[in-house]
Structure formats: structure tokens, C-alpha cells
Amino acid sequence: MAMSGRGFLLVGSIYTDYRWTVRQKSPRHRCLCNRMLAPNGLMAKYAAVLAVALLPQLVHSLKTRSTKGISYGWQLVYLFGLVLNFIYFLMIKATAAWATLTIEVFFCTWLLVLKIKIDGLECSSRSEANAKDISGDKDDAAACKSGHTDLESLDLELKSGLDNALNRAICVVDGNVDLTRNVDDLICKDAIRFRHDSTIGPYTLVNGAYRGFHIMIDAVFTIELPPEFGNDLLTQMCALAKIHGVRVVHDHAEIFDGTTPGFVAVALLDESHMSAHCYSGQGKLTFDVFTTCGANPDCTRKVARDVLFYLRRNLGGDAKYQIHHLVPLRPVHKGIGY
User: Fold this and answer.
1) Is residue 233's pLDDT more than 80?
2) How far apart are CA 313 and CA 292, in angstroms?
3) What domains does the chain contain, in order, with CATH numbers?
């Protein structure tokens, strides 16, 4: 929702209050002002319009769990203007006006608290810059590709689908540590995302690179998977790692031959690993990956994102996914994260 409309209302309301205060000093306009402050007067209607001005934004923010585009400065100025209006209405005893304005003050305060809960108190400009740097999903192959030209034709449908065919799925993002984003019907390409400014500390720096992030994806499904799906998934995991410039040291897949069908697929990365563990007979699969010290952590995130998209293509339309994101809770000795 655009801020210009409510900003215009705020400026207009402050100017109106100023003009009204000046005019009330004149006996000529006092009678007119008193008539306008009647219970059914224009002032009550004006306050009622302001009272619902923030309702669409509040509904949108609660639905999407996002306060993007609402700055702390705008909210504080708007809330300050509302408080001035409220005090003014009390002074002139405009009961209907200040009672209605109380609703808008409540909505505005709720929005401010919601933004603090979702975004924290970090500098908004720095957050937007980091989010812009990290959320470059459209240039995923170009930014992190390690120069393997033989992989350019690998799974073109998957790569093109990331930008053009990503449908909505049933995804839930757990609020671990800094993350408080719990969203139903979340677009999966936006589900795995983190900001360096809120999750990176001095204790997570090793040799000038970031590490210590753990991304987990849990999936439940109802379709019957073929026995070779474990090998196919491992091949896809390694291929995506190469595309995004994450070095694979070794990989191995173990297909269960017991009474419970399933598999384990593991790839040892540069100072890290990623793995998939599946009980296909029970319709359960989990994937996890640690960010690596030898590669950009955002490249590792993109591997997890693309694996999620691959699972969505192969686990059926009724599958459900839950994404977890863990970061260190506290500093560890000698400046090294876990």
C-alpha cells in the first residue's frame, strides 16, 4: 500500500487543525466551529475516515507478515500527528472525534509493534541494502556459478521454473532465533532467506567468510517414490552445488534394503555437508545443509532453495513443507561459530 495517500491525510489533518485553531480565536468563526463539533458534525466524520485509514495496511501486514515499505520514521511521525489530534479533540471537547480517533491510534500503534516484531530495530536502510544484495534470486546462476560450462544445459526446466513457474505451496517457516516469520501459503523461493545484518556476528566470522547457518527442510507426501529417487536426488544436489559454486568433496547414496523403504543421500562439501534422509513408506523426507566457509553462504542458500523446488516437482501436489533456519544463539570461544 502506498504511503502517499496516508501521508497526504496526515499533512492535511495537521493543516486543518492549525487553521481551525486560528479561526477559533475569532468570535466570528466560533459559532461555526461549535456547529461542526456537534455529534453528527463534520469533525466526527473526519475522524471516522482517519480511523479506518490504516485498516487495509494492518490487514495486509498481518496476512503477509511483512512491513516492507513502512519506515519507522513515517510511523513515528504519523503516530505523533494522531496524538496531537487526539489532544486537540480533548481540549475542544469533541467527544465523537476523539473517541473515533482512538481506534486509529490503536491501529497505528499495532502496526509499529508489528514492524518491531518482524523487522527488529536495525537500521532500515542497511536492512534494505542487505536484503537487496541477498535476495537476488533472478541472477542465481550468474552470481555464484563457478565457470562449469558443461552444466549450462543441466535441467533447464528447473532453472527457468525458478523465475517463471514457481507456484504457491503449503510452506511454514519456523521462527528460530531472529526469524519470526510464520507464513502459510508462502512462495517457496522466498522462504529460505536471511539478512547478514541480523544474523551475522563477530563470532561467526572465520577467515573472512561466514559460517554457522543451518537450513532444514521437512516434507511429508503421499505418493509412492521409486527406489532410484535417492540416487536422482543426490545427483541433483551435487549438480546444483556445482552450478552455485559450492565445492562437493564426496557424495554417497544408501538405499534402504530393510522392511522400511527409503534412502540416505549425503554430499560432503567444503568444510560442510548436505544430506537428505527419506522414509518413503511413511511419506517423510528431510533435507539439511550447513553454509560453507569456502563459498558464499548465499550460494549455499540457493542450493537449498533449488532442492526445495526439485522436491516440489517430484513429491506431488499435496505435499507439505516446513523450512527451519538456525543460527548460533551465543558466541563461542576463540571467535568460532559452531
Assistant:
1) yes
2) 27
3) 4-121 (1.20.1280), 143-335 (3.60.90.10)
